[in-house]
Amino acid sequence: MEKHAMIIINPSSGTEKSIQFKQDVYDILIEKDYSVTINETKKENDAKNFAIQASKDAFDLITIMGGDGTVNEVINGIAEQEHRPKLHIIPLGTVNNFAKAVEIPLKTQQAIDVIKDPTEKLVDIGKINNHYFMNLVNIGAIAEATYQVTAEQKSKLGSLAYFIEGLKKFNEKDIFSVKIKLNETTQELDAMLVLIALTDTFGGFKNAVSEADINDGYLHVFVFQEMSTLEILSIITSLVNGQLKDQHTFNIGKRRA
Ligand SMILES: Nc1ncnc2c1ncn2[C@@H]1O[C@H](COP(=O)(O)OP(=O)(O)OP(=O)(O)O)[C@@H](O)[C@H]1O
């Protein structure tokens, strides 16, 4: 039976290299006996809508050429569909957090070639209200600051751009009150930042949350309370070195996703 693949390309992702690889991806899928439909995104939600269509039309595969935002849209498109195509991700974003977490090759040609001899991985996804996520959720002013990072800053600085914006907010000590019901316990805490991770990768740093596995079925919940600049630096070092789990005062537990 003929196999169907949809390529979803975000031409604006990362360093805007996706278009130059379009033909290579098309050729390899044809070589693997897929019939191929190509869709380019123009704006927010296009990738999600293409993915919904691919599910409804019972496509076998969606090849995503883009960054975390594009992958997230596709996941939101397929999550609640009866038929979910498999995903082949070609990381072309700035940070590519999810690709790092799932250990997809970051070199474009290698990621394309994965389809020649594919291995399948199941991954956890989480849900907030009606929105699915596959990386992590940040709550607080620090998290909001990261949304102010411009596309230009991202292209120039990569993940560092987020850290710089985040650090500015850390100094303002914006504390908020948060009530967390985790398993059977409810805690009310004052927090600077709440981080809920599904994978071990944060801000593009592999192993930052080394206890989290992509398919362990858990949400890993961290609450960062008011901290001195020294403590903040120590946490950043932990993130980079993969020792966030050792900061037990901040790790308040995990629950089944
Ligand atoms: N043609 C387009 N021009 C501008 N923006 C687009 C276009 N198509 C999609 N978008 C927007 O781009 C967002 C996703 O970008 P994506 O995350 O893939 O790239 P990135 O930001 O460079 O990567 P990363 O998230 O890894 O840093 C989508 O959510 C959508 O809003």
From TrEMBL:
<keyword id="KW-0443">Lipid metabolism</keyword>
<keyword id="KW-0479">Metal-binding</keyword>
<dbReference type="GO" id="GO:0046872">
    <property type="term" value="F:metal ion binding"/>
</dbReference>
<keyword id="KW-0594">Phospholipid biosynthesis</keyword>
<dbReference type="GO" id="GO:0005524">
    <property type="term" value="F:ATP binding"/>
</dbReference>
<keyword id="KW-0808">Transferase</keyword>
<keyword id="KW-0460">Magnesium</keyword>
<keyword id="KW-0444">Lipid biosynthesis</keyword>
<keyword id="KW-0067">ATP-binding</keyword>
<dbReference type="InterPro" id="IPR005218">
    <property type="entry name" value="Diacylglycerol/lipid_kinase"/>
</dbReference>
<dbReference type="GO" id="GO:0008654">
    <property type="term" value="P:phospholipid biosynthetic process"/>
</dbReference>
<keyword id="KW-0547">Nucleotide-binding</keyword>
<dbReference type="Pfam" id="PF19279">
    <property type="entry name" value="YegS_C"/>
</dbReference>
<dbReference type="InterPro" id="IPR045540">
    <property type="entry name" value="YegS/DAGK_C"/>
</dbReference>
<dbReference type="InterPro" id="IPR016064">
    <property type="entry name" value="NAD/diacylglycerol_kinase_sf"/>
</dbReference>
<protein>
    <submittedName>
        <fullName>Transcription regulator</fullName>
    </submittedName>
</protein>
<dbReference type="InterPro" id="IPR050187">
    <property type="entry name" value="Lipid_Phosphate_FormReg"/>
</dbReference>
<dbReference type="GO" id="GO:0005886">
    <property type="term" value="C:plasma membrane"/>
</dbReference>
<dbReference type="GO" id="GO:0004143">
    <property type="term" value="F:ATP-dependent diacylglycerol kinase activity"/>
</dbReference>
<keyword id="KW-0418">Kinase</keyword>
<feature type="domain" description="DAGKc">
    <location>
        <begin position="1"/>
        <end position="132"/>
    </location>
</feature>
<keyword id="KW-1208">Phospholipid metabolism</keyword>
<dbReference type="InterPro" id="IPR017438">
    <property type="entry name" value="ATP-NAD_kinase_N"/>
</dbReference>
<dbReference type="Pfam" id="PF00781">
    <property type="entry name" value="DAGK_cat"/>
</dbReference>
<comment type="similarity">
    <text>Belongs to the diacylglycerol/lipid kinase family.</text>
</comment>
<dbReference type="InterPro" id="IPR001206">
    <property type="entry name" value="Diacylglycerol_kinase_cat_dom"/>
</dbReference>
